[in-house]
TrEMBL record:
<dbReference type="InterPro" id="IPR004838">
    <property type="entry name" value="NHTrfase_class1_PyrdxlP-BS"/>
</dbReference>
<comment type="similarity">
    <text>Belongs to the class-I pyridoxal-phosphate-dependent aminotransferase family.</text>
</comment>
<feature type="domain" description="Aminotransferase class I/classII large">
    <location>
        <begin position="41"/>
        <end position="383"/>
    </location>
</feature>
<keyword id="KW-0808">Transferase</keyword>
<dbReference type="GO" id="GO:0030170">
    <property type="term" value="F:pyridoxal phosphate binding"/>
</dbReference>
<dbReference type="InterPro" id="IPR004839">
    <property type="entry name" value="Aminotransferase_I/II_large"/>
</dbReference>
<protein>
    <recommendedName>
        <fullName>Aminotransferase</fullName>
        <ecNumber>2.6.1.-</ecNumber>
    </recommendedName>
</protein>
<dbReference type="GO" id="GO:0008483">
    <property type="term" value="F:transaminase activity"/>
</dbReference>
<dbReference type="InterPro" id="IPR015424">
    <property type="entry name" value="PyrdxlP-dep_Trfase"/>
</dbReference>
<dbReference type="InterPro" id="IPR015422">
    <property type="entry name" value="PyrdxlP-dep_Trfase_small"/>
</dbReference>
<dbReference type="Pfam" id="PF00155">
    <property type="entry name" value="Aminotran_1_2"/>
</dbReference>
<dbReference type="InterPro" id="IPR015421">
    <property type="entry name" value="PyrdxlP-dep_Trfase_major"/>
</dbReference>
<keyword id="KW-0032">Aminotransferase</keyword>
């Protein structure tokens, strides 16, 4: 006998993984240059030079027992202070090391916060479509109910009236992911201020805080001078889940944090519960080496030129062919309306006829669209354009 929920999770096919595996097989048959794989969100720019230099320095200069040892549960003081200083400097808030809890990336950060806020079987966590599909298991497996706000397919901002209709006395939090995976859209300050005002009103109506869980692995990936508002500046009951997976191109190293501002309601209890939830999932502490790297590199910013060139090339080319795309101001995704309306059919045809691998967005809560991860080589994008053109032609 095994747990059915986790069995189902472990055996459910992942569209993204299947496309990726298909691409690898096809590459053996037709050559990698003839496969156009836009499936995975794996960073394609190298980590900043200072990251590798810091790894060398730390390995050379740190006592081995200490380097490979455990840290205390929230992480070492030094990296937490470096992150706090960086956030304070950039966003004008007095962030303290004691408000930060280091994690193995955004996924365990989100799980710990969700676990902390699901208080009983009625607890609801809201997500805004299109959304990162892992929110569904993160919420369900921790006893919460996921409530989905349908996508604003005009601008891919947030339908505030739809949020309002779905808030109940059981709403504990809403996950806000901007820059967004999969749309690549950055929520404007106006959108976030509107959401903050709504949540303040509803929190006082129901007599308990409704938190924003700000899922921010793409915070630094933004183009053309667009600003990503720092949500704790707009709404005090915000808990930030951050990751260096994308901003420092370190997804395999598993490092990130939860930030619980002390001005958030019940912050001490929330922080303690996040810590307890992390303990319950066996999250002891992130790798010491990576904590130390972040301690030295917290101020590093990614060089986004390659992503920006990809974004411009893909967006302009697809628009010129007649595709409708969400305005890609951030992350490394382009979100495209499927010609013909059926994104699964489009994806299947593109795969079979052109080895063009695009992710249909049903799993992101937004059928009829597909996602392109443009963290690929610029050369692959150029070579893939005839396939996109042929696909558009087939549907005209
Ligand atoms: N949240 C979003 C929106 C993501 O896209 C991802 C990863 O792709 C994560 C969270 C998880 O990131 P991490 O690698 O830090 O666990």
């Amino acid at each position: 006998m095994v747990n059915q929920t986790f069995y189902n999770l472990g055996t459910a096919p992942s569209v993204i993984r299947q496309l990726f595996a298909y691409g690898l097989e096809q590459a053996k048959l037709v050559g990698p240059e003839n496969v156009f794989d836009y499936s995975l969100g794996n960073p394609s720019i190298p980590a900043p030079k200072k990251v590798n230099a810091s790894i060398h320095k730390i390995v050379d200069e740190t006592d081995s027992i200490h380097l490979h040892g455990y840290s205390m549960a929230p992480g070492f003081e030094e990296p937490r202070q470096a992150i706090a200083d960086d956030l304070s400097h950039r966003f004008g808030l007095p962030v303290k090391a004691s408000e930060l809890f280091l994690t193995c990336g955004a996924a365990p950060a989100l799980i710990s916060v969700i676990k902390a806020l699901v208080v009983d079987g009625d607890s609801e966590i809201m997500v805004i479509a299109p959304f990162f599909p892992e929110y569904a298991p993160f919420i369900a497996a921790n006893g919460g109910k996921m409530v989905m706000v349908p996508a604003d397919t005009e601008a891919f901002q947030v339908h505030l009236d739809q949020v309002e209709q779905r808030i109940t006395p059981h709403t504990q939090a809403i996950i806000v992911n901007s820059p967004n995976n999969p749309s690549g859209v950055v929520y404007t300050e106006e959108t976030l201020r509107g959401l903050a005002a709504l949540l303040e009103r509803k929190s006082s109506q129901y007599g308990h805080p409704i938190y924003i869980i700000a899922d921010e692995p793409y915070r630094e990936l933004v183009y053309g001078g667009v600003k990503v508002p720092f949500i704790p500046n707009l709404y005090k009951n915000t808990i930030v889940c951050y990751s260096y997976s994308k901003s420092l191109s370190l997804p395999g190293e598993r490092i990130g944090y939860v930030y619980v501002p002390s001005f958030a309601e019940d912050s001490a209890a929330v922080y303690a519960t996040v810590s307890g939830a992390a303990r319950a999932i066996g999250h002891v502490c992130p790798p010491t080496l990576m904590q130390k790297v972040v301690g030295l590199c917290a101020r590093e910013q990614p060089d986004l030129q390659a992503y920006d060139e990809n974004r411009t090339l893909l967006y302009n080319s697809l628009r010129e062919m007649g595709y409708e795309c969400a305005k890609p101001d951030g992350a490394f995704y382009l979100f495209v309306k499927a010609p013909g309306g059926d994104a699964n059919a489009f994806s299947e045809k593109a795969k079979r006829e052109h080895n063009l691998l695009v992710v249909p967005a049903d799993g992101f809560g937004c059928p009829g669209y597909f996602r392109l991860s443009y963290c690929v080589s610029n050369d692959m994008i150029r070579r893939s354009l005839p396939a996109f053109r042929a696909m558009m032609k087939a549907y005209c």
